[in-house]
């Protein structure tokens, strides 16, 4: 057992007293001895030969990159001041200290050239970046807005902003104090929040990970920490599983317990809330305590992160947090400013991620800003009665610290996902036109293939099965060269990660068009299709908004896997919302070492009747050579062919697809156990191609978020508050949406129970037959080899799980 000692943090008085007292408790990382030696290198804590030359908090900061931010905020403050105090004599500064001539922040200049020349020059500039089309585009009505109309809208918005800020300060003096505080922060000088964050980056008491070196671990075996987690979790699941399927605990052998994973889809707040409802129902039914993993995409990642942090591992508390926090939109920056001024401790943790990236000269994107604002909504607890104000736990902003709740098997292991857009045949030269194409690569003209490479992050490791390379989660965000970290900087802040996991707005032009197309009338959409179809492939390579950027952990990695060879030549990786490829986190759950038997997929996608997630999963398993995946696409196609009335395929609240299809049951449902055999009798013997290859079959239980008339007349596909891009929900809407997920799960509960019991009986039978064979071989070692060779095919070897 290895122990990482984290120094204690003492509480302080003063402006940081709002930060809840949190001590750096010893972080125990249990490890197990792997009986099968692994063929890869582990990360070590030995001193590195590299030095952290990229970061020095004492070096004077280059403020040029902040000039635009300063100007924008100062303009905002000036507008607010003008609204609240519309007299020219009002000023936040002492007139005596002001310079005699002070230029305005923004100045409207008149171009002396002829208007026709100006228009011609503008058109020439546009033509440089315009895609040439073969003919005239169809006439599309574009609403025109005059300058007066635009200024009127800006004025209306300014009035609303002013009223919001005015309502948050009791007196005029307090307002000026707030303005001065914001200006002080913008100066980035001593005593500012920015400087405090930069100074803390070198504080080992607050960031103990900066004392450690990190190395890349190569290979696709699970890390020792996850193996230890699996062993601990099985012990915790034994009693709960016996109760769930209705047998005695003494009848359960740990190796027979099915490995169950919960998979939540993407879909913004809709997915975040409905996934909470599904998992709440699973917890009430006793299934959650029988679960080994919980994985998410986008909004479901947000839910899992809040459950393990502010929710305090309680779905009830997480629900209360949602109801208190989601009624204010994330774009409501007056409340963000209020938090910064009244609770500097919370503000520091929220801003920590983006400030750290800036101070280390990392590439900043809109995703980082989005994650920062999102964290101000999701990662700050607000007491309902207001007595205790706002509080945050500093440990909650470190992904690696979630290991506190899973090391000993108390919770399922969380798996967060993201993807990188891979362009085969790309060169290593940076794109000269800023960062339109992802991965700082330029696609060759003859490249007609591209795909998304999946990355996963747990409290233990970050990496990708396709690159066969992994790093400790606490080292994500560092620069690596040749498999070793070359700097010691703090772990990437959770706010930045939440923005990355949910960065759906960094989609490609093709994705944007596919989103907008359903909103057009048929004549317009057909006309647009005629012109855009020819360029759709090229549009699939272009991201108008750059994804989140991080240093590439496998940069110049020695002896990389063939699939990672080109990837290892890139200094940076750009990560997107995983929903751009598949809105269900199925791929990380197919890792052989996890040996998952049953996946419960909670799908809250938009246009759920036509989603292609299973077809994409089929493509993935073919590319990776995975044999145990159910033939879902084929089954659904057959169902649609038999369906009266044609497409779309009619959906039910639960659908079950088996990776092993017996001769006496269909692939899309389960025959009740009592009709087939007694509870204690073994399942029917059937030898399939999956069994012959000794591959463990996977059963997928699919829960689509569709209307439930028995619960409420709610259709998530048509309700405006259920939109993926809606970030403001009332308390009753939160309860309604979570309740739909909870009730939909209840309709499939008994099917789930039957599947798990059936899987348990199959694994139990295989274990007993294997033990019988081993006992026979011990008695007659001479014929052991022959007996093993002539044994019944399809007996999966579970000995490695013991």
Automatic annotation (TrEMBL):
Its EC number is 3.1.1.5. Residues 111-137, 766-802 are annotated as: Disordered. It catalyses: a 1-acyl-sn-glycero-3-phosphocholine + H2O = sn-glycerol 3-phosphocholine + a fatty acid + H(+). Residues 208-797 form the PLA2c domain. It comes from the Eukaryota. Pfam families: PLA2_B. Keywords: Hydrolase, Lipid degradation, Lipid metabolism. The keyword tRNA-binding does not apply. Residues 111-131 have a biased composition (Basic and acidic residues). Belongs to the lysophospholipase family. This is Lysophospholipase. It comes from Linnemannia gamsii.
């Amino acid at each position: 057992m290895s122990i990482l000692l984290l120094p204690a943090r003492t509480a302080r008085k003063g402006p940081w007293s709002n930060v809840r007292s949190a001590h750096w408790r010893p972080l125990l990382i249990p490890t197990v001895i792997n009986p099968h030696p692994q063929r890869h290198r582990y990360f070590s804590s030995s001193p590195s030969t590299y030095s952290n030359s990229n970061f020095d908090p004492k070096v004077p900061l280059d403020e040029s990159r902040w000039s635009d931010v300063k100007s924008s905020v100062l303009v905002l403050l000036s507008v607010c001041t003008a609204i609240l105090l519309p007299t020219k004599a009002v000023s936040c500064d002492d007139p005596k200290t002001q310079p005699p001539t002070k230029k305005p922040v923004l100045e409207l200049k008149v171009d002396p050239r002829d208007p026709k020349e100006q228009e011609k020059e503008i058109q020439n500039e546009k033509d440089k970046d315009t895609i040439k089309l073969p003919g005239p585009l169809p006439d599309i009505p574009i609403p025109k807005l005059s300058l007066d109309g635009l200024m009127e809208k800006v004025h209306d918005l300014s009035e609303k902003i002013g009223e919001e800020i005015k309502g948050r300060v009791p007196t005029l003096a307090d307002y000026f104090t707030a303005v001065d505080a914001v200006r002080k922060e913008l100066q980035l000088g001593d005593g500012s929040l920015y400087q405090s964050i930069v100074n803390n980056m070198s504080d080992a008491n607050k960031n103990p990970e900066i004392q450690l070196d990190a190395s890349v671990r190569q290979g696709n075996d699970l890390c020792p920490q996850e193996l230890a987690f699996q062993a601990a979790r099985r012990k915790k699941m034994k009693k709960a599983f016996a109760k769930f399927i209705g047998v005695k605990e003494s009848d359960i052998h740990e190796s027979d317990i099915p490995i169950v994973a919960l998979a939540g889809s993407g879909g913004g707040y809709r997915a975040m809330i409905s996934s909470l409802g599904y998992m709440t129902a699973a917890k009430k039914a006793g299934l959650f305590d029988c679960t080994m993993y919980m994985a998410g995409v986008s909004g479901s990642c947000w839910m899992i992160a809040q459950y393990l942090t502010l929710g305090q591992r309680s779905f009830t508390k997480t629900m209360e947090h949602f109801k208190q926090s989601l009624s204010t939109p994330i774009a409501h920056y007056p409340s963000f400013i209020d938090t910064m001024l009244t609770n500097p401790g919370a503000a520091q943790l929220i801003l920590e991620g983006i400030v750290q990236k800036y101070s280390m000269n990392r590439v900043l994107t809109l995703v980082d800003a989005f994650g920062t604002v999102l964290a101000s909504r999701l990662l700050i607890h607000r007491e309902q009665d207001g007595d205790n104000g706002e509080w945050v736990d500093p440990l909650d902003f470190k992904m690696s610290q979630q290991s506190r709740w899973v090391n000993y098997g108390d919770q399922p292991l969380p798996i967060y996902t993201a993807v990188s857009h891979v362009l085969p045949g790309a060169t290593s030269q940076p794109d000269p036109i800023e960062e339109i194409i992802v991965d700082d690569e330029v696609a060759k003209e003859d490249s007609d293939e591209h795909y998304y490479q999946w990355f996963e992050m747990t409290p233990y490791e970050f990496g990708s099965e396709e690159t066969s390379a992994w790093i400790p989660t606490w080292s994500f965000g560092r620069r690596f060269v040749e498999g070793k970290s070359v700097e010691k900087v703090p772990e990437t802040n959770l706010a930045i990660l939440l923005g990355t996991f949910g960065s759906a707005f960094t989609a490609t032009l093709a994705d944007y068009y596919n989103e907008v197309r359903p909103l057009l009338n048929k004549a317009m959409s057909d006309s647009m299709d005629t012109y855009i179809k020819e360029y759709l492939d090229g549009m699939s390579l272009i991201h108008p908004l750059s994804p989140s950027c991080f240093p590439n952990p496998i940069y110049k990695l020695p002896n990389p896997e063939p699939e990672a060879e080109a990837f290892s030549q890139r200094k940076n990786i750009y990560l997107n919302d995983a929903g751009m490829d598949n809105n269900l986190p199925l791929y990380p759950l197919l890792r052989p070492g996890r040996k998952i038997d049953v996946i419960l997929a909670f799908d809250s996608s938009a246009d759920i009747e036509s989603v292609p997630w299973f077809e994409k999963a089929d493509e993935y398993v073919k590319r990776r050579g995975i044999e145990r995946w159910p033939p879902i696409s084929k089954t659904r196609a057959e169902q649609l062919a038999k369906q009266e009335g044609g497409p779309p395929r009619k959906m039910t609240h639960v659908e079950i697809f088996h990776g092993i299809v017996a001769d006496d049951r269909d692939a899309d449902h389960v025959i009740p156990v009592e009709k087939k055999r007694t509870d204690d009798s073994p399942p029917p013997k059937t030898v399939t191609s999956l069994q012959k290859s000794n591959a463990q079959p996977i059963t997928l239980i699919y829960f689509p978020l569709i209307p439930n008339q028995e619960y409420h007349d709610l259709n998530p596909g048509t309700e405006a508050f259920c939109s993926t891009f809606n970030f403001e929900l009332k308390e009753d809407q939160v309860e309604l949406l979570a309740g739909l997920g909870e009730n939909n799960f209840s309709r499939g509960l008994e099917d789930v129970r039957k599947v798990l019991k059936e899987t348990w009986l199959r694994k139990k039978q295989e274990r007993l037959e294997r033990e019988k064979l081993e006992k026979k071989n011990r008695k007659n070692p001479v014929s052991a080899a022959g007996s093993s060779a002539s044994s019944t095919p399809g007996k999966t070897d579970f000995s490695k799980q013991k």
